[in-house]
Specification:
With about 180 residues, this protein is of the alpha/beta class. It has a single domain, classed as Isochorismatase-like (Rossmann fold), CATH 3.40.50.850. It has helices at about 25-40, 55, 60-70, 85-95, 105-120, 135-150, 155-165, 170-180; strands at about 10-15, 45-50, 70-75, 100-105, 125-130, 150-155. A 6-stranded parallel beta sheet has the order 3-2-1-4-5-6, sandwiched between helices. The radius of gyration is 15 Å and the shape is globular.
């Protein structure tokens, strides 16, 4: 199945001040998440951001917060975003049947959120080059488990080009400049 802009929401999980520096390849994760946020805004894909225990882990890093514009930022304590009543209500209010996930830590909050969304009947796509964990082993285990659950494992460009659907549009021209 393809990711459709009209059917999906982008969920950026816990890209916070005290988490980002501890991750594998943080620069890659930040760069790709910024591209996803830019594409989501261009294609009118709604965005939700989360912050796990912001009092202890800090807030969303400035690079992501600025790229997210006026996207809603939801604090949480549960590892699965869907276990948090505020997030679950915000996501359900969007009326989207697909969720595109990016963030950290892949094997904890991203994986548990994906599992909960799949249990709720949502089509889940995890952007592998826009998610991270502290170790490569944890990232690999996360991807393996998510594939077994039925989540689509995609890259940033896969998500962006599926949202676009075709070349020759103004959105395509604008995003191509950012991608290159």
């Amino acid at each position: 199945m393809l990711i459709r802009a009209a059917d999906s929401a982008l969920i950026v999980i816990d890209m916070q001040e005290r988490l980002v520096p501890a991750m594998q390849a943080p620069a890659r994760t930040l760069r790709n998440t910024r591209l996803l946020l830019t594409a989501a805004q261009e294609m009118d894909v709604p965005v939700l951001l989360t912050e796990q225990y912001p009092k202890g882990l800090g807030h969303t890093v400035p690079e992501i917060a600025s790229a997210a514009g006026d996207a809603q930022v939801l604090p949480k304590l549960h590892f699965s975003c869907m276990e948090d009543a505020g997030f679950a209500a915000a996501f359900r209010a969007l009326g989207r049947r697909q969720a595109v996930l990016a963030g950290m830590e892949a094997h904890i909050c991203v994986m548990q959120t994906a599992a909960s969304l799949i249990e709720d009947g949502v089509q889940v796509f995890v952007v592998s080059d826009a998610t991270a964990s502290r170790t490569a082993e944890s990232e690999r285990a996360c991807i393996d488990r998510l594939q077994a659950m039925g989540a689509g494992i995609v890259t940033t460009e896969m998500a962006v080009y599926e949202w676009l659907g075709k070349a020759g549009t103004e959105s395509f021209r604008r995003l191509l400049k950012v991608i290159r």
